[in-house]
Every structure is written in C-alpha cells, then in structure tokens.
Design a protein that fits this description.
7-stranded mixed β-sheet, 14 helices, globular
C-alpha cells in the first residue's frame, strides 16, 4: 500500500501507529480474531471467491481487486477437496498475521531509481508506504501436509523417480493432480482474502491515529502478489505458445508492460514486483520485464532468503536487546513474542539489496524504488 503522507508527518506518530496496528491485527502462532469467526459454509465461500468475498463483506474498496494478481481469486477452487482439519484451522484465523517471517511494515520511499515508473505506480520520495506479508495461515499449511501424503503415494503409483522425497508430485491431468490444484486454489483464495482484510484494518488504524478518512490520507493498494503457488499459464517455448503449470515457490510474477494480465493502470510500466527485506534494512519495488517472460516464465525472486536457521539466529541474538538495537536505528517494533524478533534478526537474512541487484542486472525485473522501515509488527 502507499499513502499521501510523507515521512515527517508520520515520524512523531509512529509508536502510536504501531501500537494501533498491533491491537487491530492479531499476531502470533495460532492467533485468532474473536469478531471474525466463520461457519464452515461461510468459509467455503471465502475459498471460492477470495477477495470478492472480503470486499462484499465491507473489507476494502470495490477497486481493490484491480490491483491484485488474478483479481484476488484463482478459478477452479473446490472446498470439498480440503480436509475438515484444514477448514477447522481456517475458520478462526482469517484476518490474522501469524508468526515467523510474517509482518506488517510501515516504511517510506528513501530512493527512487526510475522516476517514470515510480510516477506510474504512484510512488514518490519520502512517501509513507505499508507492506503486508502473510498467507493462508494454518489452513494452507494443513492443505500442504494433507496433499504431501497423497502425492507421496502418487509418485509410486505413476513410477516417478525423485532426487528428493520433498519433490513428490503427480501428473497434472491425473485425479490427484487435479484435486491438488483445486485445493491449492482454495488456499490461495483464503490468502488473498486474509491479506485484504488486513489491508482494511491497516486503513482503519491509520484513520484512527490521524483522525482522517483513508481517502484523505491517500491510502491505496499498489499491488498484491502471490509468492507460493502453481498456476496454469501460457508461455512461449521453442518459438511456440504452450500452456504450462508454473510453480513459483518463494518467487513472484514479473509480467512486462502490455501483458494481458498486467493491471490496466500499469500497462505502460509493467506489473509491480515486491521484494521485501528484513525488519532492519529495506525492501524494494520493481516492475516486470519482457526478459523475465523470455527467461524465467515471467518470474523473479520473492525476498532475500535466510542465511541462518532460526535456531542459529536464536544463538547469535542471545543476550542482545534486539528491539532496542532497532529503536536506535529509528525502527519501532511490536511483536507477540521476543523469540520471533530474535529469530528474525536482520543478519539472519541476506542483504536484499544484493539480491535485487542480481535480478535487476539479469534483466528479469527493473528497480523502481527502495523502502526503509519505520515501524514493524510481527507475530
């Protein structure tokens, strides 16, 4: 999201804003929102309709889906292929951030690399921005666990040899393959709706702190993109158009200008690419390119990637006042638990600027702006 606010207008309110966000958005392992518990029947509507369900319930604006991958709804979802255990986990977790590397970050644009692209995206220097990183919560995790068991058997059934058991799979046209894609689409739609509801509560939090409407504050969704999904897409292979199943794991779409699936507002500049960093350094906004279509099936990376396991990060951070260290850098942190902050210390991740320079240098996405954090909430 972006806003019409500048850094100086928010600096004196950042602690109150972070506290308000933390109160409005449930965080942490198993977090639940008491006032948004769904029946199984209503949850199944979420799994089919995604963001459309959320907007219809008043969580957001009618134009929001225009700025979301697939308009916030993957077609073909079948809730009846999702286990009761997954549905039970999902009923109480819609509108929650979760834990681990999930976060809401209030930051500002501290560098602009491409003025034309930045203008098309609605970004300017010192502008206040918001990044939301979360997904399908326990429901998606359970769908994954359930289908790993099914696909492990499928691998043997169809005589598929694997270099690693974690690569278990099934032919797309098989019954198991079709069922998995339909269940995964439901989990993706849940994730779209989850982020949409959190977007809405971010808007409400800003309104409460600044005593202005979200319209006057200029709060607007720039883009929402998947980063763990398999999708059926058309790409050119050996000079011919072919329908492929493109699985982006820890990767995002990077479609170029004038691609049919690039939002109309960004047709001349390309689809926004969002690459978050860690809570102590910076994140990036880029746009997709034709070279990505030619070389990486219209894909680029999703983030920096870890260089330390969570256990190693806990050892390295032992005895340190991480929250104070970040405060000294001008970054306000609020977390459901100190352990998460220690696991997510900045040095546990690669420097995302180096990663972004690689994908930019390779031509598979183009740098537009860099964002620095001012305040972060984590699970």
């Amino acid at each position: 999201m972006c806003s019409g606010l500048e850094r100086q207008e928010v600096r004196g309110h950042i602690r109150k804003l972070v506290e308000t966000l933390f109160r409005n958005i449930p965080c942490g392992i198993g977090s639940k929102r008491k006032d948004l518990r769904l029946s199984k029947a209503e949850l199944k509507k979420v799994l089919v309709k995604g963001v459309g369900w959320a907007v219809k319930q008043g969580f957001g604006l009618e134009e929001d889906p225009e700025y979301i991958e697939e308009r916030g709804c993957i077609q073909g979802a079948d809730p009846d292929l999702i286990s009761d255990r997954a549905l039970e986990r999902g009923k109480a977790q819609l509108g929650t951030l979760g834990s681990g590397n999930h976060f809401v970050e209030v930051g500002y644009v501290d560098e602009v690399y491409d003025e034309h692209a930045a203008k098309d995206l609605g970004l300017f220097l010192d502008q206040v921005t918001i990044i939301i990183h979360t997904g399908s919560r326990g429901l998606g995790h359970q769908v994954c666990d359930d289908y790993i068991k099914i696909l492990m058997k499928s691998t043997q059934k169809y005589g598929i040899e694997l270099p690693d058991r974690q690569l278990c799979c099934a032919p797309i046209a098989s019954e198991e393959g079709r069922q998995y894609l339909a269940a995964m689409a439901g989990a993706a739609n849940y994730a779209f709706a989850n982020r949409q509801i959190i977007f809405h509560w971010v808007r409400e939090s800003f309104e409460r702190v600044f005593q202005m409407s979200s319209e006057r504050l200029g709060l607007r969704l720039i883009y929402d993109v998947c980063h763990n999904i398999a999708k059926i897409e058309t790409h050119r292979v050996d000079g011919k158009e072919r329908k492929l199943c493109v699985h982006r794991k820890g990767a995002t779409r990077a479609f170029p200008p004038h691609h049919p699936d690039t939002p109309l507002a960004y047709k001349d500049v390309g689809q926004p690419v969002l690459i978050p960093g860690d809570m102590g350094r910076y994140s990036y906004v880029l746009v997709g390119t034709e070279q990505a279509m030619a070389e990486t099936f219209g894909s680029t990376c999703h983030g920096a990637g870890r260089v330390m396991s969570r256990k190693q990060a806990m050892r390295v951070s032992k005895g340190r006042a991480i929250i104070r260290e970040l405060e000294d850098q001008g970054i306000t942190i609020r977390s459901a638990g100190k352990a998460t902050v220690r696991e997510e210390i900045p040095e546990a991740y690669k420097d995302v600027s180096q990663v972004v320079d690689v994908v930019s240098g390779a031509g598979i996405s183009k740098k537009v702006a860099r964002l620095r954090p001012m305040g972060v909430i984590k699970g």
